[in-house]
Amino acid sequence: MSEPKVWAKKSTFIFAAAGSAIGLGNIWKFPYMVGENGGGAFVLVYLLCVLLIGLPVMMSETIVGKYSHGNAIDAISKTAERSNASQWWKGTAVLGMITIFIILSFYSVIAGWAFDYTYNFAIGEFTGKSADQVGKFFGDLLADPKRLIIWHSVFMILTALIIARGAQEGIEKSLGIMMPVLFILLIAIVGYSMFATGKFSQTMDYMFSMDFSKVTPMVVINAMGQAFFSLSLGMCVIMTYAAYMRKDVSITESSIYVTGLDTLMALLAGLAIFPIVFANDMNASAGPGLLFVTLSTAFAQLDTIGLVLGVAFFFLVIIAAVSSSISMVEPFVKWCEERFGVNRFVTTFVYCFAVWAFGLISLFSFNIWGKVDVLGTGKNPFDLLDFVSSSILLPLGGLLVALYVGWGMSKKISREQLFSLNGFFFGLWLFVMRFIVPVLILLVFVSSILGEAKMNAIINQIAAYF
Ligand code: TRP
Fold first, then answer.
1. Quick one: pLDDT at residue 445?
2. How many other CB atoms sit within 10 Å of the CB of residue 86?
3. Which of 125, 218, 236, 249 is deepest in the core (most CB within 10 A)?
4. Is the CB of residue 35 below 6 angstroms from any atom belonging to ligand 1?
5. Which residues contact 258 (CB under 8 A, 6 or more apart)?
6. How remote is the CA of residue 25 from the centroid of ligand 1, in Å?
7. pLDDT tens digits for 14-70?
């Protein structure tokens, strides 16, 4: 066999995995979830989830990928063979690829909104607009399939162009530019928020004052789902990137960096957004409209500074989204390349076209199909796809990864790969993977299927016994 393809630089795995992890999940979803789930309480629970579940699962996916140096399906196959475990575990990777296909299809549509905003901020379209006008702007955008299709296409083409060039030439090189820009832009905006709005202490209070009475079971469940999504876990994405990992790079250390960077970026996004929202007397719990309506209105009131901030901010969102979307294309393309020896360029474009076409289902759900009720679920096509992928397939994938690495795969492989961990921490990691992670994921899973009301009723019933 030829030498495995690996990243040229030692630091690339960290950059690549962090690029995958840091995305719309951090900049768009995390801040509004903090707002919706009671501020500091959610932040605390989220941090615990990242540390207790996110980090060990990140290490697990990295072990499998690094061990085999191949695409996720073969990686599982190879480790299963050595462990005398069933080849059926490969289903984990297949499920992961199906899930990221769905996630990417609407991720691209939403990333497209950021393109539209960057453009319209740049041409001064937002300057001076009131909250109502910005709300209408957002509504008009969603109601206009043509405008959405243009940006959805631009986003998918950009993603395809990077992936088509290969792991080193495409992914590694583009990340070398994107990641520093991402950090610099976010830190600059945080700097502005910190010094220019006078709302920094209020924000710190909002995000970090722990009001334990607000920690409800639903907050815990939401925080855990968000941790999985934000860290790109359970979908064999990190596993795929880990396949390009150099032998001399430590799994534990890299996982700590990636998890830490992703968390830092989510917190920084909060520190960038909330001061501006508070300074304009706006509501932090606006939900998904927090960026596209609330924050944008605040920018619109700031004239030239607002224009610059708006362009910088939405450009940042685009970069974060592209560095994530490429990680969702790579697993399938790498598999096709290795399995069938097909041309990477062609595979990438065919695959991205398929994702693009499938994305139209979500795209039309924001306008012409908005009222369509799929199979009597009460959800339009996008809501259903979002629910099935994020709330069912994502935790299911996480569960399978945890069960495989904890129980299916031989301990010998993980011990070998985690050579830098001492006995105590290795034992702790294994215990968490075997018992804690599956139980917690199962909880998220059941609750997301049952829904909030039923879940609360069950929890109250159980609590009544004590
Ligand atoms: N983690 C990314 C974000 O925070 C999204 C993402 C990339 C993802 N790859 C993934 C989510 C794989 C789930 C699975 O935006």
1. 77
2. 11
3. 236
4. no
5. 14, 17, 18, 21, 58, 231, 238
6. 7
7. 999 999 999 999 999 999 888 888 888 899 999 999 999 999 999 999 999 999 999
Q: Which two tokens stand for residue 414?
A: 């993980």
Buried b (16+ CB within 10 A) or exposed e, 409-441: beeebbeebbeebeeeebeebbebbeebbbebb
Place of tokens 């039309």: 364
pTM of the model: 0.91
pLDDT band for position 312 (cuts 50, 70, 90):
very high
Dist CA 189 CA 293 (whole Å): 18
The CB of 323 under 6 Å from ligand 1? The reply is no
According to the model, what pLDDT value does residue 351 have?
Answer: 97
* Euclidean distance between CA atoms 346 and 350, whole angstroms: 6
The span from the CA of 398 to the CA of 441, in Å, is 7
Give, in degrees to the nearest 5, the angle at Cα 94 between 324 and 440: 75
Run of H or E including 305: helix 303-340
Ligand 1 within 6 A of 33 CB?
no
Q: Is 324 in the pocket of ligand 1 (CB under 6 A)?
A: yes
For residue 321, the ligand 1 atom closest to its alpha carbon is: 15
